[in-house]
Structures are given as structure tokens and as C-alpha cells.
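Whiteboard transcription, Tuesday session. T.W. wrote the C-alpha cells on the left side:
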């Protein structure tokens, strides 16, 4: 067995520990990951920028620090990847999710994930695929094409952090960045059989400029995609913490690793199979209904609940589209002031669905915005009312199994589930509610249906990130999922 194969599915925590004990060399580990990417990513299309030269240089520096006895970060020498959306590292290309006009656009500054993950000693190998401006729950664009699902190459990995999810599930890196404005960590985690954690709003700094307050409508987050709960806790330890440039950044130390040793015995856990309003594929519903029983086996009391929502799911998915679009409008205006008019000169770079929503949202009034925040408040109250009485709320992560990829760079989700029409961009994603509210949430592998992964969403009380990690760790011990990655490892290249 080659070193690349031996290390492929080794957790980040174990890699870091073995590197620290000098049983593994950072140079060898990085070379093994690069070799696996070069061998396997032709079929997946997870990486859209390969920073291998920088990675090799940083691996040599990591080896020097290790051998000289310097103080090491918690992820010293561990390979990782960052997302190609609103995420930047100096000297690396940033295409904002496969926008052709930006295929040679080079960043000159750091965003939070690459800066903090490198300070923790991890080594970035490159950037991963995302849809244009992150405006959908699938991963595809006109510049790079779709990221394929490691469990079935004909299907999509999910978005918007789809490249990161595919890379982790396929053993290219043990941990990768996701950002989450409507579920973009949890969606691809569900479809790629991973653990995807979205912390409470403010835990992970979100440094935005020129508008430092732009990440609140809906709440936008950075998170991690991993194959184990422990790796997620390790990643959170690295990337969370106060940053004075984020006006919402929380200044509070959290023992994420300690949460893994907790119990759910005696907890009251609410279970909603459909969040009142979603049609859910029967295979998904059955898989999650069976998985949630694991918490009863661990001593918790699980009760099915109604949230009291009455609005149609299509009205609520339209609300998300209206609320997220101002981030893109602002980005377009910023580039226009710099002399680049994307709509006038590069309109063909953008999918028709994106352009349609851009036009709609460009004409919203202050009254429209107030009304939307009032509808958002209804969702917040519904979620919060449940969590006032229960420690967790459990739901399916997504209402559908992975969709087949299109061949035109414009893959979308299902248009119908159980005969009910849904928005193919986001309407099948049972995640964006939590971007309205800011609660911590994770998608955890619930099982397989027809050979495809199904995710279960675990939602915690406001700022109770450790509750989500504790419940996730308990579930992982009772119903481990590591064997599912053998399906990825065995797939034809």
C-alpha cells in the first residue's frame, strides 16, 4: 500500500498527533495528498486551483519547525483546502464561484479560514469548486463545470461548498473549509456522507469589507467539512475566536474538544420530519427516522414536534433568495466602481436563475425589506419556541437524494418532491431556516439510501455549540459511519 493510500482516510486529529510525535513527516504527508489529488480529482473536479508550490514550501517549513522543537499549532502539517467563493489567500486566484471574468483574478489579502488554519499549522493545498456567487444548493458553474459526488460520479456533490466536500469524502484532505449562507456546509456534507458543522453566529469571525455588517441577512458563516466529529471540534478550535474587525465576533473561549466526552442521557430532543412545510423524499425520511432513534438508545427522550409554521415552503425559499441576493448586488457595485461592469460586459458568465433574481431584488423597496424581516421573524420564533422546551431539534438535512449532473454548467436540484413543486435552487434544502435564525447546526451522516448518503441535521440552542458537538459525538459512537468511505475509495477513476 502506498503512503497516499495509507493516509487517505486518516483523521486530521490522528495525522496531527503522529506528525507531532515525528512518526510522519509534514513533507511526506503533503506529497501523499498532492499525489492523491493528481490521481483522483480528474473524475471528481473538486479542486479548481492547485497551490501545490506554496504547499510544498510550507511543508518544508513545517518540517523544519518540527525538527527544531518549536511550538506547534494544533493542526501542524495537516493538509487542508479552502473554498473558491468569497474566500481569499494572497497570491491565489479567486473566481467567486467559477465566474469566467475572474479566472485570472488574484487576491492580495487573507480571509478568516486560510489565515487562522495556517496559524494553526495546517497546510493549504488549493481552492475548491463552488457555484457562481454561491447562489444554489448544487455545485456547478460555467467555468469549471460540476463537482461530482464521490459515491456516484453521475451525481452532484451538493453546494455551495461542494468541491470541499468531495475532496474530504474522497480522502484528498481530512478537513476543508465550507461557508454557509443557506446551508452550504451542511448541504454537501449530507450528499457526500460527511460531518458539516455550522457554529453559532459570531463564533467564527466573518470579516467583510467595505460593509462589515453585510453577513446578517441571512446570517452567513464559515465552517468545516470533516469525516469525524473530533476533526470538526479541532477545526473549530483553530478558526473560532474574537476578531476585532468583525462587529459580531464573540469574545468567549469554548472547549470544543471537551464537548466530545459528554452524554445526552436525560435530554429532551425534538424531532421534526419535515419542519412542517417540506415535502421529503420517502427514502430520506425513513433513513432519518431510523437514525434519530439512536438518541433514545443513548438515554435521551425524543418527541416528534410541530413548529407551527403555516407559510408555504415556496414562499420561504423565495424569501431566502431575496435576502441573500444583496450580497451579490453589493459585490457587483463594488467591482463597477473599480471599472468592471459585470452585467454589461460579462452577463453570459451568470446563470439565468441568478440574473432573474438579481433583477427582482434590484427593485426591492424598504417596505419589502421590512416585510421580509417580519417573515424571517416567524421562522425564528418557530425554531426558538421549540428550543425553549427541548435541548436539540433534529430534522433531515435535505429533502432529496443527490441529483444527476447537467452537462451545461447549470446543475440545479429537484423541481418536485413527492409530487410537490419546490424551488430547484434551494427549496429542497432544510438548512436555510437556520441561516434565518443563527442557531448552531450540523449535518451528520444518517445512513445510505440506494447507495447514496443521507444527512441528519442537529440544531442546538443559541450559542449552545457544545450541545451539538456532544450529541454528534454520542451518535458517532453508537452509529459510526467510517466504513461508507470504502465506497468512495473503490470507485473507478
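and on the right, the sequence the group agreed on:
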Amino acid at each position: 500500500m502506498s503512503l497516499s493510500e495509507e493516509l487517505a482516510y486518516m483523521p486530521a486529529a490522528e495525522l496531527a498527533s503522529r506528525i507531532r510525535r515525528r512518526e510522519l513527516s509534514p513533507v511526506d504527508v503533503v506529497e501523499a495528498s498532492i499525489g492523491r489529488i493528481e490521481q483522483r480529482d480528474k473524475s471528481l473536479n473538486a479542486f479548481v486551483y492547485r497551490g501545490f508550490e506554496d504547499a510544498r514550501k510550507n511543508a518544508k517549513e513545517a518540517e523544519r519547525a518540527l525538527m527544531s522543537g518549536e511550538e506547534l499549532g494544533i493542526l501542524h502539517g495537516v493538509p487542508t483546502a479552502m473554498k473558491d467563493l468569497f474566500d481569499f489567500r494572497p497570491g491565489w486566484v479567486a473566481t467567486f464561484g467559477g465566474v469566467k471574468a475572474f479566472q485570472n483574478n488574484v487576491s492580495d489579502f487573507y480571509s478568516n479560514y486560510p489565515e487562522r488554519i495556517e496559524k494553526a499549522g495546517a497546510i493549504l493545498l488549493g481552492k475548491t469548486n463552488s457555484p457562481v456567487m454561491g447562489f444554489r444548493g448544487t455545485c456547478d458553474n460555467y467555468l469549471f463545470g460540476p463537482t461530482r459526488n464521490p459515491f456516484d460520479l453521475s451525481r452532484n456533490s451538493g453546494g455551495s461548498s461542494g468541491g470541499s466536500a468531495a475532496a474530504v469524502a474522497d480522502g484528498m484532505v481530512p478537513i476543508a473549509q465550507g461557508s454557509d449562507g443557506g446551508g452550504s456546509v451542511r448541504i454537501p456534507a449530507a450528499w457526500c456522507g460527511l460531518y458539516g458543522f455550522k457554529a453559532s453566529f459570531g463564533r467564527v469571525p466573518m470579516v467583510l469589507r467595505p460593509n462589515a455588517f453585510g453577513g446578517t441577512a441571512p446570517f452567513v458563516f464559515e465552517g468545516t467539512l470533516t469525516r469525524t466529529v473530533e476533526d470538526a471540534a479541532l477545526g473549530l478550535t483553530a478558526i473560532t475566536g474574537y476578531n476585532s474587525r468583525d462587529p459580531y465576533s464573540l469574545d468567549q473561549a469554548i472547549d470544543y474538544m471537551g464537548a466530545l466526552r459528554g452524554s445526552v442521557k436525560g435530554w429532551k430532543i425534538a424531532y421534526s420530519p419535515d419542519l412542517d412545510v417540506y415535502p421529503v423524499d420517502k427514502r430520506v425520511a425513513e433513513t432519518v427516522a431510523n437514525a434519530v432513534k439512536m438518541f433514545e438508545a443513548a438515554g435521551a427522550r425524543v418527541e416528534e414536534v410541530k413548529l407551527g409554521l403555516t407559510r408555504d415552503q415556496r414562499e420561504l425559499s423565495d424569501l431566502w433568495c431575496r435576502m441573500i441576493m444583496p450580497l451579490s448586488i453589493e459585490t457587483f457595485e463594488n467591482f463597477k466602481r473599480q471599472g468592471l461592469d459585470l452585467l454589461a460586459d460579462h452577463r453570459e458568465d451568470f446563470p439565468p436563475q441568478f440574473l432573474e433574481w438579481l433583477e427582482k431584488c434590484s427593485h426591492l423597496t424598504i417596505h419589502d425589506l421590512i416585510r421580509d424581516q417580519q417573515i424571517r421573524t416567524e421562522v425564528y420564533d418557530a425554531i426558538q419556541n421549540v428550543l425553549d422546551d427541548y435541548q436539540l431539534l433534529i430534522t433531515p438535512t435535505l429533502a432529496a437524494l443527490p441529483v444527476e449532473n447537467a452537462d451545461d454548467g447549470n446543475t440545479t436540484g429537484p423541481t418536485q418532491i413527492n409530487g410537490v413543486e419546490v424551488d430547484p435552487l434551494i427549496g429542497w434544502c432544510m438548512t436555510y431556516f437556520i441561516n434565518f435564525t443563527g442557531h448552531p447546526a450540523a449535518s451528520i451522516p444518517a445512513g445510505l439510501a440506494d447507495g447514496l448518503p443521507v444527512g441528519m441535521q442537529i440544531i442546538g440552542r443559541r450559542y449552545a455549540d457544545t450541545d451539538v458537538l456532544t450529541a454528534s459525538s454520542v451518535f458517532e459512537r453508537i452509529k459510526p459511519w467510517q466504513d461508507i468511505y470504502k465506497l468512495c475509495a473503490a470507485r473507478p477513476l
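Someone added at the bottom: The first helix runs from residue 3 to 7.
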